[in-house]
From TrEMBL:
InterPro entries with a match to the protein in the record: ATPase_NBD, Bud32, Gcp-like_dom, KAE1/TsaD, Kae1_archaea_euk, Kinase-like_dom_sf, Peptidase_M22_CS, Prot_kinase_dom
Function: Required for the formation of a threonylcarbamoyl group on adenosine at position 37 (t(6)A37) in tRNAs that read codons beginning with adenine. Is a component of the KEOPS complex that is probably involved in the transfer of the threonylcarbamoyl moiety of threonylcarbamoyl-AMP (TC-AMP) to the N6 group of A37. The Kae1 domain likely plays a direct catalytic role in this reaction. The Bud32 domain probably displays kinase activity that regulates Kae1 function.
Organism: Methanoculleus frigidifontis
Name of protein: Probable bifunctional tRNA threonylcarbamoyladenosine biosynthesis protein
Family, similarity comment: In the N-terminal section; belongs to the KAE1 / TsaD family. In the C-terminal section; belongs to the protein kinase superfamily. Tyr protein kinase family. BUD32 subfamily.
Binding site for Fe cation: 110, 114, 131, 284
Length: 527
């Protein structure tokens, strides 16, 4: 390790987690950037072949940017997540360079780098981030020194899904841009829509699209409308839940004009700001690693050689964000402020002892899909609120229902997200335990949807609820809640334990469901 870091100069950044080998130099601004993308001759990306490609072009890519450097202060590299063989190739090059130049190494989390270059390029301070790429689909927000995952895909990344779909129709790789082009010529087609709280799942949608016998343009159109509406819905839910007012789109799929348009419309309608970095900084690139390496270096974060092994499953929330001095805007605002609340789906208005919950049309959503979701969810909500009540779960009493509106009892109490005590979590555990024991799954178990009144946790917002005694549905239900807890509280472990106590008390099948939750959690930690 070098004695001291040169006080000025550039950080060299190396990216190569998957398809792109890219090197860049960054000081106060981008100084140089060069990339050598790998495109598989057939099929998708083969990790070992990609790594061979990376090894063969690495020297040239670095040689293209290095002459632009006056003084290299550090070598930053993508330490993970990504494909093991590719990561190892890049790490080897980075170590050799750092030794040769006698400068420190900086190990950058690839997902954090997507977010940081996005903040740099757009000037956003504290956004909710939709990170939509090949391997990842996550909704991320910053709180208390970490980037937290509010929600993410429970199976595959959206980009890989689009690529897989394209492959099944013998379309070239990457599939995303091809699907986008074809979708412009097609019209809407109904496909499965899967959202669970702030999480989502794409594999059912991709399989259905692959098996459809409708014209390819229509399938592409339907696929985009469905997949992107799911992404925008969970982003809006995170925005409403976290009380932030900026949305940043990053990752390769962020290049899609339709996805950008939908997010922009959602933000306009909510009064939030929306931005997307220019194309160069959206997909994998060396600039994001060089830039993030630089801000990490300035915060004193370097990586001893002995600890520089790659981390294929490195999660964004494992990184201690030492370079941000702010804490991030904590969950704020009052429930039903001014007698009105706007969730991700509905407008809720106070009416004396009642509230009126009306599901409003979403401008970003295809009209047919919009209508279908509003009707399905209003119907599910009224039916399952009542069923849960009959099973002894505290829920609001319903007074009147129309196709898009429910008039229900107003629950006067503390919304759990503003009252996260162990005692209240134990009460929430009892409520969810009773619900699961009755064969009902909530589908949107966030702390915004629980109100503590008279020592009891009342469950609201049953729009995504369904009847199910499947272990998987229960596991996912719990996972959605735990993820929300983890993303908004620093005392996650204790709160979770308190919840588990209440849950186990009320539900004989608790142990099995909790075991499945852990399995679901591990599945999210892919790559
Ligand atoms: C871990 C890392 O290696 C990985 N990288 C990655 O996925 O590459 P990225 O450049 O962020 O995104 C590539 C994906 O972005 C999609 N894509 C590119 N242009 C697109 C477009 N116009 N519409 C939809 N998808 C698009 C491609 O189909 C491909 O699946 C990641 O960030 O998850
Ligand atoms: N019966 C009720 N009594 C009191 N407050 C309520 C009631 N129903 C809803 N609210 C308030 O309105 C907010 C939004 O309601 P709800 O969660 O039902 O809407 P949504 O649009 O489905 O939300 P989401 O963003 O979770 O999809 C709640 O977080 C809560 O603060
Ligand atoms: Fe990426």
């Amino acid at each position: 390790m070098p004695e001291s870091i040169p006080p000025s100069g550039q950080v060299l950044g190396l990216e190569g987690t998957a398809w792109n080998v890219s090197a860049a130099l960054f000081d106060d601004d981008l100084v140089a950037l060069h990339s050598a993308p790998y495109s598989p001759p057939t099929g998708g990306i083969h990790p070992r072949e990609a790594a061979q490609h990376h090894a063969s072009v690495m020297k040239d890519v670095i040689a293209r940017v290095l002459p632009e450097a006056e003084q290299v202060r550090a070598v930053a590299f993508s330490q993970g997540p990504g494909l093991g063989p590719c990561l190892r190739t890049v790490a080897t090059a980075a170590r050799a360079l750092a030794l040769a130049l006698d400068v420190p190494l900086v190990g950058v989390n690839h997902c954090v780098a997507h977010v940081e270059i996005g903040r740099w390029a757009t000037g956003f301070a504290d956004p909710i981030v939709l990170y939509a790429s090949g391997a990842n689909t996550q909704v991320i927000g910053y709180l208390n020194g970490r980037y937290r995952i509010f929600g993410e895909t429970l199976d595959i990344g959206i980009g890989n899904g689009l690529d897989k779909f394209a492959r099944s129709h013998d379309l070239p790789h990457p599939g995303g841009p091809v699907v986008e082009r074809l979708a412009r010529e097609g019209s809407y087609l109904e496909l499965p829509y899967t959202v669970k709280g702030m999480d989502l799942a794409f594999s059912g949608l991709i399989s259905a699209a692959q098996e459809s016998s409708s014209p390819l343009e229509d399938v592409c159109h339907g696929l985009q409308e469905t997949a992107f509406a799911m992404c925008v819905e969970v982003t809006e839910r995170a925005l409403a839940h976290a009380g932030k007012d900026e949305v940043l789109l990053v990752g390769g799929v962020g290049a899609n004009a339709r996805l950008q348009e939908m997010l922009r419309e959602m933000c306009e309608d909510r009064g939030a700001a929306f931005a997307v970095p220019e194309r160069t900084y959206l997909g994998d690139n060396g600039a994001m690693i060089a830039y993030t390496g630089r801000i990490m270096l300035e915060a004193g974060v370097t990586l001893p050689l002995a600890e520089s092994q790659v981390r294929p499953g490195y999660r964004v929330d494992e990184v201690e964000v030492a370079w941000r001095s702010d804490l991030g805007e904590a969950v704020r605002g009052e429930p039903l402020e001014g007698g009105r609340a706007q969730g991700a789906e509905a407008v809720v208005e106070e009416a004396g002892e009642f509230i009126v919950k009306r599901r409003v049309g979403k401008r970003y959503r295809n009209e047919a899909l919009d209508r279908r979701l509003i009707i399905e969810r209003t119907r599910a909500e009224s039916r399952l609120l009542a069923a849960a009540r009959r099973a002894g779960v505290a829920t609001p009493v319903i007074r009147e229902i129309t196709a898009d509106t429910i008039l229900m009892e107003r629950i006067k109490g503390d919304v759990l997200k503003y009252a996260m005590t162990e005692e209240n979590l134990a009460r929430a555990g009892v409520a969810v335990g009773r619900l699961h024991a009755a064969g009902i799954v909530h589908g949107d178990l966030t702390t915004s949807n629980m109100i503590v009144r008279d020592g009891q946790c009342v469950l609201i917002d049953f729009g995504l609820a369904h009847v199910s005694s499947e272990l998987e549905s229960r596991g996912v239900d719990l996972h959605v809640l735990f993820q929300t807890l983890e993303s908004t509280s620093d005392s996650f472990a204790a709160l979770r334990e308190a919840f588990v106590e209440g849950y186990a008390e009320a539900f004989p099948g608790a142990e099995e469901a909790l075991a499945r939750e852990r399995e679901v959690e591990m599945r999210g930690r892919y790559l």
